[in-house]
Structure formats: C-alpha cells, structure tokens
C-alpha cells in the first residue's frame, strides 16, 4: 500500500544510485556498484517513477523476513517461534523503513542475515560431522559476503567478527580446511569490482569515511549508540534480541551455534568502539530475534507453569502495540504537517534527530523525500525561458548529489538538458561534452559562479518548507559570458 499511496516521493539517496547506474563503469566506481546495477534494472522495468525506487527494497525486506523464520527453524523453533521471529520484521522501524528506501541499507541487512544463516548451518554441519554440508554452506557464506562487498564496505565488519568468532569456538577447526579460505576467495572475487574501483580512483572511500567521521560519526557517543538500539527496534523486540544473544552464548541447546552468537556480539562491540551509527548493527537483529523467539517458546519455569505462556503473549502484544505507535515513524504514511504534530504529541522528538546531531521538523529520511520534482519543475521553467540558442548551449548544475540526481532523474519528464555536479560521485561522472556557455545553477553560492561567469543573476527561488533545511529555500542562478569552460574548471572541483 505504501508503494502506491504515500505523500512522499523518491529519496535523495535514490537519485544518486539511479545516476550511478546511468553513468555505470562497473570496474571504475567510487562506490560499490551493485546498487547502481540494481538502479538500472529498476529503471528499465518501471521507468523513472516512485515504484522504481521502492519495489525492489520491499522484496529484499521480505527476503529478510523469510530468513528470520528459517533461522528460527534451524535453531529448533516450531511454527510459533518462526512466526514470532518474523513479527518484528513487520513492526520495527529498523526493518520497515529500509525496506521502503532504495539504499544499500536493506541490502546490507539481507547479505549479513544470509551470511549469519550460513554460519548457523555451518555450526550444525560441524556438530553432525557432515562434510558435504560444510562445503556447501561455506560457499553460501562466501557468496553472501561477496555480494555484501559488492554492495557496501561495511560487510568487512561482519567478516572480521566472524573470524574472531571462529577463533573462540570449536569452529576454529574449520580453519585447517580449505573451505573457509575458499569462501574468502569467493567473496573477494565477487566483490572485486568494488576493490578495483577504489584502486583505480585512488581510494576515494578514505575521503568519504573522513567526511563521514567529521560530519556525522563525531556526534555518535557510546551512550547514544546503546540508547538508540531499543528506539530503533522497540523495547520488546530489543529485550527479545537480548535474550536471544544470551541464549546463543549460554544455552546448551544452542551449543552448535555459538560462533554465530559471538559474531553478533563482536560486531556490536566493534561498531560501538568505532562510533558507528546505531543502525549499522541492524543486520544482526534477525538472528538475535530468532534465537530469542526459540528460547521464549521453549522456556520452562519450575513451579510457575503458566508463566511462559503469559510471557509469550505479553511479548507479542508489546511488539504489535509498539509497532502500531511507531508506524508513522517507520513508514511514510502521514503528510508532513500531520506527522510533525504526531511526533510532538507522542513524545517522539528523538526521531527527528538528523545525521549531524541537530533536529528537524520531521525525520530526515522523510524530509529527504520531499520537494525534488518541484525543483525540477522550477528549473524547467527557467530553461524554457531561454532563447533557442541559449537552450542549445545550456547545462544544469546541482550543488549537491540530491539536486543533481533529482534533476537528472526528472530530465526526461521536464525536457531538461545535461546535468553536472562537482559533488561526491557526480564529480567522477565528469563535466560532459558541453563547455557550459549557459549555466543554470541550483543551490550554488553566486560568488563562486562569479569566478567563472561575468554575468550571474537569480532566475528563480525554490521553496519547499518540509524538506531538509538546506533545500527549503534554494536559489536558481542563470550564469552567462563564461571565463573558463567546465572542462577546464573540473579538475579543481575535486579539492573543494
């Protein structure tokens, strides 16, 4: 329903990934290219529409839900435990929101979950001394982590955590066999385009991580990281996950699965020490929830035979109630003004914290889905007002990847010319073939334009009151009488 009926549009980040697909150079990307390939597939199937940005993430979210049930079954849970393992996937914002956004987050959750499921199966294969199953599940693990590397470099965190977990459990014996090393080789082979792209471009990920650390991660404290966990999952789901973690490490029935439990613990601590964002650790929750669900359905309290049943019912009710209360925060269903009022009345102001530590009117993910097509329409009006000769020479520039990506995404719909930007990945796409004699610049500082053009005037102003702060009042400049071509200017933009 949210795919079809929503007051929100395409997310800022999705525009970038669609643009990466249109400028795809599989072995020369500054970002792991899987998301760009997916963007091309989605655009080919559904065009430049909201559906193109939401259908695949929804499918990936459904696959995570299925894997959670499979994990519960592998851990010995019956139908009730499997259903309980899936319930938070339908209620918790940490799963619902990524499954509505065309970003690597939901893919990251999928590949981590598949890798951890393979680790569970490896634990059982080792306990059963089943060499055939061991070989098979190491290959699955290698494929999952390889696809993760092709999607996002954060897969290296769970890879390191799994290695540590192997060393402290009986599965360390597997390191004397060729299969873990074969899995590692497979992972790096599948993910090699991500690595080759970094080498060929001079490791732009280092600069990206530096900017991320200074701009966003510096605001993440140890306490904030810990407190954010139950806020993302819901208190009942978090407690169920905590019970699952303890059970994986201590419960005798889960002895074959210790490595998976330790991997979750190690990656949780690693990301906390590195000041990772709270949601970075989200992919471990399907396993912990599944383990908690199995433990809960098999719990036995002497002299209190009715207690386990009452506890199980209470957990289900609390997960559902928390999910209903948080639903407007988890899914884009309420219009911005209504959502803002709901957040205040529900006391959920923490949900409006931005990735730079400030606060906004509505959650940043939702604000980042507003105003983009309106921007394209306003810019189209400026472009259409040009003379035919100016239109032939015109180039549009976006000050950030959201503006540039949205203008390129809607270019066909509004008849816009070439779009360029010196921001982030767009710099690697290059300045195009036009020299930029006439430039329509969105959001840029006019003083910077004056260094390159002799005549700069404000042609329009874009207003979008519910967008993120920097997109609420955006100038559109028309620059003419060029001093330097875009091709001459381009190399200097990388250092800005």
How would you state the average pLDDT, rounded? 92
Number of H/I helices: 25
Round the Cα radius of gyration to an integer and report it: 25 Å
Report, as a whole number of angstroms, the end-to-end distance: 43 Å
Helix content: 55-70%
Structural class, judged by helices and strands? alpha/beta
Number of strand elements: 5
Order of helices and strands: HHHHHHHHHHHHHHHHHHHHEHHEHEHEEH
Low-confidence stretches: none
In what range is the share of β-strand residues?
5-15%
Query: Mind describing the biggest β-sheet?
Result: 5 strands, mixed
Order of adjacent strands in the largest pleated sheet: 2-1-3-5-4
| Outline type | globular
Which key features would you list for this structure?
about 500 residues, alpha/beta, five-stranded mixed β-sheet, 5 strands, globular
Description:
This protein is 61% helix and 7% strand. The protein is of the alpha/beta class. A 5-stranded mixed β-sheet has the order 2-1-3-5-4. The relative contact order is 0.11.
Topology readout:
Layout: H1 12-22, H2 34-46, H3 50-74, H4 79-91, H5 93-96, H6 104-127, H7 131-151, H8 155-167, H9 179-190, H10 192-200, H11 204-215, H12 222-233, H13 235-250, H14 258-273, H15 285-297, H16 307-330, H17 336-345, H18 364-367, H19 372-384, H20 388-393, E1 394-398, H21 401-409, H22 411-414, E2 419-420, H23 425-429, E3 438-442, H24 446-449, E4 453-463, E5 473-482, H25 486-493
Parallel strand pairs: 1-2, 1-3
Antiparallel strand pairs: 3-5, 4-5
In short:
The chain is an alpha/beta fold and 496 residues long. The protein has 25 helices and 5 strands. Strands 2-1-3-5-4 form a 5-stranded mixed sheet.
């Amino acid at each position: 329903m949210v795919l079809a009926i929503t007051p929100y549009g395409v997310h800022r980040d999705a525009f970038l990934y669609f643009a990466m697909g249109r400028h795809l150079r599989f072995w020369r990307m500054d970002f792991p290219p899987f998301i760009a390939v997916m963007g091309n597939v989605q655009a080919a199937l559904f065009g430049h529409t909201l559906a193109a940005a939401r259908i695949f993430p929804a499918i990936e979210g459904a696959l995570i839900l299925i894997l959670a049930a499979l994990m519960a079954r592998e851990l010995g849970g019956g139908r009730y435990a499997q259903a309980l393992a899936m319930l938070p996937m339908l209620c918790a914002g940490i799963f619902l929101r990524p499954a509505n956004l065309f970003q690597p987050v939901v893919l990251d959750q999928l590949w981590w979950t598949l890798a951890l499921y393979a680790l569970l199966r490896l634990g059982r294969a080792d306990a059963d001394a089943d060499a055939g199953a061991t070989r098979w599940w190491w290959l699955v693990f290698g494929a999952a982590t390889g696809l993760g590397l092709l999607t996002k470099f954060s897969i290296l965190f769970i890879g390191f955590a799994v290695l540590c977990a192997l060393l402290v459990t009986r599965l360390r014996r597997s390191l004397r066999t060729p299969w873990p090393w074969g899995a590692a080789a497979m992972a790096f082979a599948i993910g090699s385009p991500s690595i080759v792209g970094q080498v060929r471009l001079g490791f732009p990920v280092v600069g990206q991580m530096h900017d991320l650390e200074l701009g966003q991660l510096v605001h993440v404290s140890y306490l904030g990281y810990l407190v954010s966990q139950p806020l993302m999952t819901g208190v009942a789901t978090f407690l169920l996950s905590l019970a699952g973690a303890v059970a994986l490490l201590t419960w005798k029935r889960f002895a074959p699965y210790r490595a998976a439990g330790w991997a979750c613990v190690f990656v949780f601590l690693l990301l906390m020490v590195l000041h990772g964002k709270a949601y970075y650790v989200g992919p471990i929750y399907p396993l912990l929830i599944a383990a908690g669900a199995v433990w809960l359905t098999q719990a036995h309290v002497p002299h209190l035979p009715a207690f386990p049943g009452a506890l199980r019912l209470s957990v289900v009710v609390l997960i559902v109630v928390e999910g209903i209360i948080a639903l407007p925060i988890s899914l884009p269903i309420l219009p911005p003004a209504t959502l803002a009022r709901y957040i205040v009345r529900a006391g959920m102001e923490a949900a409006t914290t931005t990735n730079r530590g400030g606060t906004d009117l509505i959650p940043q993910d939702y604000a980042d889905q507003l105003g983009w097509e309106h921007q394209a329409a306003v810019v189209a009006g400026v472009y259409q007002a040009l003379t035919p000769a100016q239109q032939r020479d015109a180039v549009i520039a976006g000050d950030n990847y959201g503006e540039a990506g949205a203008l390129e995404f809607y270019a066909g719909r509004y008849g816009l010319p070439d779009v360029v930007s010196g921001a982030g990945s767009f710099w690697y796409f290059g300045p195009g073939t036009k020299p930029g004699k006439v430039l329509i610049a969105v959001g840029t500082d006019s003083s910077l334009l004056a260094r390159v053009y002799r005549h700069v005037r404000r042609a329009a102003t874009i207003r979008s009151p519910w967008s993120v702060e920097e997109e609420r009042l955006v100038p559109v400049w028309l620059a003419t009488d060029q001093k330097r071509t875009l091709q001459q200017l381009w190399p200097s933009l990388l250092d800005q």
